[in-house]
Amino acid sequence: MRALAFVVTLMNLCWAGGPLLAADADNGRTLAERWCVGCHVVSGEQRKGTDIAPSFASIAERSNFNEEKLAFFLLEPHPVMPSMALSRDEARNLSAYIAEQKRP
Ligand code: HEC
User: Fold this and answer.
1) Could you tell me if 81 and 91 are in contact, meaning their C-beta atoms sit under 8 angstroms apart?
2) Pocket, ligand 1, Cβ cutoff 6 A
3) 28 falls within a domain
């Protein structure tokens, strides 16, 4: 029983933001600046962009915004967006980065 409790505690520690499992928004930013800037305004500092695609800030502001759903969305090929073949981690990091842009 004690051993089980120990394992459960360990797992809880990991879920609660262990660096190995948590999405990495900083990495998401790097990815966004590499892959997404061509069409999206990906940060508040970016002055120039296109109007063909919504800015990441405006996506984060949507009332139905959901970080997990977005991560799944990013794994699917998008009709307008070229398929970027993101890994699961990359999709989660991007999603976390976009979520950060929601104004508190
Ligand atoms: C070649 C241009 C292009 C690139 C590069 C691109 N996008 Fe897009 N993206 C679009 C366009 C255009 C839309 C709007 C699609 C629509 O309105 O149906 C869009 C829409 C989206 C949406 C919103 C979908 C929705 O629910 O309305 C998200 C989220 C998104 N892109 C994320 C990304 C991310 C993350 C990247 C980088 C990994 C990226 N995009 C790269 C063109 C692009």
Assistant:
1) no
2) 32, 35-36, 38-40, 52-54, 59, 70, 74, 80-82, 84, 94
3) yes
